[in-house]
Amino acid sequence: MIKFLILILGIVFAGTPYNQKKVLVLSDNPAVYVSHSQFFNLLSKTYRVDYKNIQSNTFNLQLFGEWQYDHLILFSTTNDLKVSIQELLDFYDSGRNILLLGSTDQSKYFRKFLNSFGLDMHEYGSSVIDYFNNIKGNHNIVTTTNVNILKVDKPVAHQGAGLAMTPYETFQVYGLVRGSETAFSGSNLSHNIIYVGATQGRNNARFVATGSWEILSDEYLNNSNLGNFELTQEIIRWGFGQSKILKAENLIHRRLDSDDIKPYNYRLREDCYFSIDIFEWDYQKDQWIPYVSTENDVILEFVMLDPYYRVPLKKGQGAKYELSFKIPDVYGVFQFKINYLKPGYTFLKIAEKITVRPFRHDEYGRYLVQAYPYYFSSFGTMAGFVVFLIAFLLNK
Amino acid sequence: MSDTKFVDENSLIGIAASFWQQYSTKTPQKLKIMDAFSLYCFILVIIQLFYCTLVGDFPRNSFLSGIFAAAGALIINICLRKQLNPETKYMEISNERAFWEYLAAMIVLFLTVINFLG
Fold it and tell me: PANTHER family, from UniProt (chain A) (predicted)?
């Protein structure tokens, strides 16, 4: 009876959005709820959305040391936020995601906040201009097909300022949507014009910033010739950690000729087998599927201070990546290391420590032809010693 | 000294001849036997080093035990020789005790060598 009750309760609670992730939307312009209704529709399909005014005191990011939200959406304004930049960064450092919808007249607060992610907004009042790729001859509404990491088939429209990258592209900071070849904004040329920029922290928290928040408005989302709707979906999926999520598990290493998994130690020059399963999260099927890297770039390092091996793993069956290799002729404490830093994907950092021991005294090769002089010398000395002893003791 | 007066000490051969003359007349028979063994060990070391430069030290453990067997025996032998020679005796220990210590050292050396030979 009790079991039945628990079952009923479970079914009831599974249906409620209680376990949904919570998103906080901050804006001081009520008009965005009308102009971005599509965007909020998409959002509320998967998340529980809380709308607050930037200026209000009625929300807490953190309450009694616990973060109250999983993701944060900021509509930038000319006003400053009540929350300090440091608290927002702490929010990000705790592994939570932030989406910043920028605009060119945003306050210094937002510019500073953007700078802490390696991105920079173009000058005040600037707007990206493109005389070749635009909509209906209006050179302020520019289009581009230069989309990385996200999957968008149609051209994406943009209106307003662009972002620049403060340092050059790294494995952590990249432009998701970049300006076309002919775009420019003031002195910034196409290689430094980013419409949607992103940063992924070493804790795999994701930050997405757009140069203008108009590109997610209904005006562009309803236009079926443009890819802005797909882009919005992709930004929500990628930015809030649903797509391009990797996990590694089932790390196995063993001697090639034995089934003893993770042995206590290896002897130098032994054949060793290493394998690991890498999965990618599939948001459509809601399950982990085997991750397939097309570029053969999952690299295994066998490290003791320096890497002695740095070899790409071979794709095996299912999610398995495997490799067999010979332990080097050096003994000490080694590590199997995988440092998979692929832009757009969560970073995989795996390290497994093992010991490599030298030969035991009875494991050396015996009766080797080239070692005969040494054998002769060893036993010759002993024989010579016996002869010497006899001669020495009998001599009076 | 009267035996050495008719060798010419200014030439290299003269020096060698003088040395040999002194050695064969002055050194006791027992020390001569020790020197023969030392020479035998020394030659073994030289041959092995020569062979190693030609062929390489691939079975490193065998190479080391071969070299150390000969060189170790050489060194221990020289130590005993110093003890038995009254002119070079350095610690006041009896010849018998020196010989037993020599024997123990040799046995330890050979055990190590056999263990490491492979």
Answer: DOLICHYL-DIPHOSPHOOLIGOSACCHARIDE--PROTEIN GLYCOSYLTRANSFERASE 48 KDA SUBUNIT
pLDDT at A9: 56
**C-beta atoms of B62 and A364 within 8 A:** yes
B64 CB-side CA count, 13 A:
9
Question: Do A11-239 and A246-357 agree at the fold level?
Answer: no
Structure-token match 């050194």, residue found: B27
Confidence label for B1 from pLDDT (cuts 50, 70 and 90): very low
- Give how far B6 is from chain A: nearest CA, Å: 32
The residue ranges of chain A whose pLDDT is under 70 are: 1-19, 167-169
Is residue A172 within 8 A of residue A201, CB to CB? The reply is yes
B1 within some domain: no
Which of A40, A236, A101, A176 lies closest to A110 in space, CA to CA?
A: A101
User: Is A364 in contact with B61 (Cβ distance < 8 A)?
Assistant: yes
pLDDT > 70 in chain B, percent: 92
| Complex ipTM value | 0.89
**CATH class assigned to A11-239:** alpha beta
Q: Which of residues 8-27 of A touch B (CB under 8 A)?
A: none
* Domain presence at residue B3: no
pLDDT at A311: 94
In a domain, B6, yes or no: no
Residue A384 sits at the chain B interface (C-beta within 8 Å) = yes
Could you give the CA distance from residue A73 to residue A43 in angstroms, rounded to a whole number? 11
Q: Is residue B14 included in any domain, yes or no? A: no
Task: Compute CA distances A242 → A47, A234, A235, A246, A382, whole Å.
Answer: 12, 9, 10, 10, 75
Q: How many structural domains are present in chain B?
A: 1
Is B59 within 8 Å of A371 when comparing Cβ atoms? yes
CB contact (8 A) between residue B58 and residue A370 = yes
C-beta separation of A306 from A332 below 8 A:
no
Residue B69 is part of which domain span? 29-117
Q: What is the pLDDT of residue A343?
A: 87
pTM: 0.73
* CATH architecture of residue range(s) A246-357: Sandwich (2.60)
| pLDDT score of A97 | 95
Chain B contact set for A386 (CB, 8 A): none
Q: Could you tell me how many CB contacts below 8 A there are between chain A and chain B?
A: 83
CB contact under 8 A, A378 and B113: yes
Binning pLDDT at 50, 70 and 90, where does residue B111 land? very high
A386 in B contact zone (CB under 8 Å): no
The answer to whether the beta carbons of residues A144 and A179 sit under 8 Å apart is yes
Domain boundaries, chain A: 11-239, 246-357
How high is the pLDDT of residue A289? 94
Query: Quick one: pLDDT at residue A15?
Result: 47
Query: How far is A287 from chain B, CA to nearest CA, in Å?
Result: 55
